[in-house]
Amino acid sequence: MKEAVQHNKDTTLQEDSHSSRNNLYPIFLKVKQLEVLIVGGGNVALEKLTFLLKSSPDAQVTMISPMFREETKTLADRFGVTLVTKNYKKRFLRGKHIVIATTDKPEVNTTVYRDCRKRAILVNVADNPPYCDFYMGGIVTKGNVKVAISTNGQSPTTAKRLRQFFEEVIPENIDDLVKNLNEYRKTIQGDFEQKVEILNEFTKGLIGKKEVENDQN
C-alpha cells in the first residue's frame, strides 16, 4: 500500500514538473526562403516587423492593413517589405508560410488563426498564447552566434531582461572564435564522429581556460 502511495506521489510530481516546464522546440528559420505575412498596420505590427527585421534583415515580408504608420512605411521601404493597403481576406494567405496577426479587432485575429490552421500555416496572434503556434522570444545576435530566449509566453518582459543580460555577458569577439573553429574544422582528418570528438575536446579546453582565468581573478 505504501509503495502504491509513493508511486502515485512520484507520478504526480513528474506530471507537475512537466506541466510547468517549457516544452517548446526552438528552431532557427531561414526567413529569406520563406514568405511571412503580418496582418495589421498599427503599433503592434510595427513592433513585430522591427523585431523580425532586426534579427533577419533579409526576411521576405508582406503586410496587409487598411492603414500603416509612417514608421512602418519607412521601415518597409528600407528593407523591401511589401505593403498591401487592404482589409484581410483569406486569399492573401496563398503562398505564405508564417503569419502574424496584430490587429486591434479580436474577430479578425481569430479569423486569421482559423484560416491558417485549415491551411497548415504557422500562425501567431499577438498577445494571445492559445492562438499561437509559435512565440517570438528574445534574441541575442553576435555575428554568426545567435541565442533565442523563451519564457513559454508567460513573461515577455523577463525574456527582454534576459536578452539584455546575455548581450552584455557574451563577448563581442565570440564571432571570431566561431570563424576560427570553422577554419580549424576544415583541417581535421577523419570521419564525422572523429571530427566532433576532436572539436568537443578542443572547445572543452577553451571553457576550462576561461574558468581558470576567472578563478585567478
What is the spatial order of strands in the main beta sheet?
Answer: 3-2-1-4-5
Tally of helical segments: 7
Terminal Cα separation, in Å? 56 Å
What is the residue-averaged pLDDT? 86
Helix content: 40-55%
Percent of residues in beta strands?
5-15%
What is the ordering of alpha helices and beta strands? HEHEHEEHEEEHHH
How would you describe the shape? elongated
Number of strands: 7
> Based on helices, strands and strand pairing, what is the structural class?
alpha/beta
Largest sheet: 5 strands, parallel
Radius of gyration: 23 Å
Q: Unreliable segments (pLDDT under 50, ≥5 consecutive)?
A: 7-17, 209-217
Q: How would you sum up this structure, described in words?
A:
The protein is built from seven helices and seven strands, in the order αβαβαββαβββααα. It is of the alpha/beta class and 217 residues long. α3 links the parallel β2 and β3. The longest helix is centred in the last third of the chain and has 25 residues. The strands form two sheets. A five-stranded parallel sheet has the order 3-2-1-4-5, with helices on both faces. Strands 6-7 form a two-stranded antiparallel ribbon.
